[in-house]
Amino acid sequence: MKPSTFLSLYDKLEKLVRHLPDALQGPILREITPIKTLFLLQRAPRLVLLGPGGAGKVELLRALFGTDVARAGEENLSDGTWQTFGQKSRGALQLLDARRPASLNMLRAALAAEAPDLFVFVRPALAIDDDLAADLEHAAQILACAEQRGGGRAKLLGVLVPGAAAETEHARQELNAALHTRTELSDRMVGTLALGDGGERLAELIAIELPGEAQLEMARLSGNRALQKQIAQVVIKSVTAISAAIGAQPIPLADFPILTSLQGTMVASIMHISGREMSVKLAGEFIAALGANIGFGLVLREGTRAVLKFVPVWGNAVSGAVAAGGTYAMGRAAAAYFIEGVSLADARGLFRRRRKETPLLKD
Questions:
Q1: Which of 19, 57, 177, 253 gives 20 to 30 Å between its CA and that of 200?
Q2: 265 Cβ partners below 8 Å, 6+ apart?
Q3: pLDDT computed for residue 294 by the predictor
Q4: Could you tell me which of 351, 342, 246 has the C-alpha nearest to residue 298?
Q5: What global pTM score does this model have?
Q6: Under 8 Å between Cβ of 264 and 258
Q7: What are residue 95's phi and psi, to 5 degrees?
Q8: Average pLDDT in the chain
Q9: How many percent of the chain have pLDDT more than 70?
Q10: At what angle do helices 225-247 and 314-338 cross, to 10 degrees?
Q11: Who's near 307: CB < 8 A, 6+ residues apart?
C-alpha cells in the first residue's frame, strides 16, 4: 500500500470527523495523528557509529537484523557518507561510520545532509588504553560537529562486543565509566549494554531514543515482537476509537464501506509492522478467514446496528460500541497472528472471544 493510499483514506476520515459535534472532533483527530506519524512519515533510523575501527559494525548490524547484512570485509569500508543496510520487505537503517580515520570534512557534510537519531559507541572487550582515549576524543568532536550542523543533541549509547575470554559485565562497566570521563559524552549517555545472543534489548533501547517516524522501521527490521506489539496497539487503539465515532453516526448503513475499509487498512498496517509486505488483498483474505466476511452473520449484525440507529441518542451510542468492539477484536486477532505467530485457528478463536466481550456482538 502506497503512502498516497493512506493519505487519501485519512483525508476522507478527517472530512467525516468535521461533521461530528465540535466536542468530539478534537479527540478523534488526535487518534488519527499517531497513525499518520507512523506510516506517512515512516523512514529508516539514522545511527552514527563511533569507537575503534576493526570490529563492531558487523556485530552491531547482525544483532539488530538477526542475520548478516554486512560482510566482515566491509568492517572498515566507509567513505564518510551514509550507508543503507537492510533486508527486502523487513526494512532498512542508515549508518554513518564516523570512526577514525574517517575524514572530518566528509563527516561534516554527511551530518549536515542528514541529522542523526542516535550515536552508538561500539567497542570490543579490550583493556583501557591510549587508543580508547583517542576514540573518546574523536567521538566528542563528532557530537559537537553534529550539533553545530543542526543535528540537535542526539543521545549516545555504549555497546560492548564481548570477547572470548573477557568477563563481560566487568568490561561493560569499564566502558561505561570511560564514556563518562568526558562531559561531552556523559551528558548524552542513555546507558551501555553488552551484545548477547540476540539484539532484542539493543533494538528496544535504540527504539526508545528514536523519533516516532523511525520507530516503526526499527521494529520491522529487528523483528522485535515487543516493539511490534507496542506499535500495533497504537494502531488498534486509534482505529477502534475512530470506528466508534463513525459507527455512532445517525445514518443507517452509510458507514459500512468506511468501516470495512478502515478495518482492512488496520490489518494491512499490522502486517506491515510485523515485517511483511503490506497488502490490502491479503488483509481482506485474513478478515474473511476470521469469519468476518460479508456473509449472513455480518449483514445481520450490520442490520441490527442500522435498526439501533433509529433509536435517538442511545441507539447511536450502541452502534458505535458495536463498531468499536468488532474493530478491536479484529485488530487483536491480527496482531496475534502476524506478530505473535499464533495459528489461524487460534487467531479466529481470539477474534470470537474478544468480539463476544461486547454483548451486542454475539451471534
A1: 177
A2: 1, 6, 9, 239, 280, 283
A3: 45
A4: 351
A5: 0.79
A6: no
A7: -130, 130
A8: 81
A9: 78
A10: 160
A11: 252, 315
pLDDT in tens, 33-60: 777 777 878 899 999 999 998 889 999 9
Nearest to 147 by CA among 188, 177, 206, 191: 188
> What DSSP designation does 277 have?
P
323: pLDDT strictly greater than 90? no
Rounded to 10°, the helix 3-17/225-247 angle is 40
Grid cell of 41 as nine digits: 512519515
Cell of 110: 554527511
- Superfamily, domain 46-209: P-loop containing nucleotide triphosphate hydrolases (3.40.50.300)
Residue 234 has pLDDT above 80, yes or no: yes
Rounded distance between C-alpha atoms, residue 172 and residue 49, angstroms: 18
**Cα–Cα dist 181/279, whole Å:** 50
Q: How far apart are CA 123 and CA 114, in angstroms?
A: 24
249 C-beta neighbours (distance < 10 Å), count: 18
The backbone region for 85, taken as left when phi is positive above 0, alpha when psi lies in -120 to 50, beta otherwise, is: beta
CB atoms near residue 34 (< 10 Å): 15
Asked if the model's pLDDT at residue 12 lies above 80, the reply is: no
Domain edges within the chain? 3-41+222-361, 46-209
Q: In whole angstroms, how far apart are CA 165 and each of 65, 128, 161?
A: 26, 16, 12
> Which amino acid does the sequence have at 242?
I
Residue 17, pLDDT score: 67
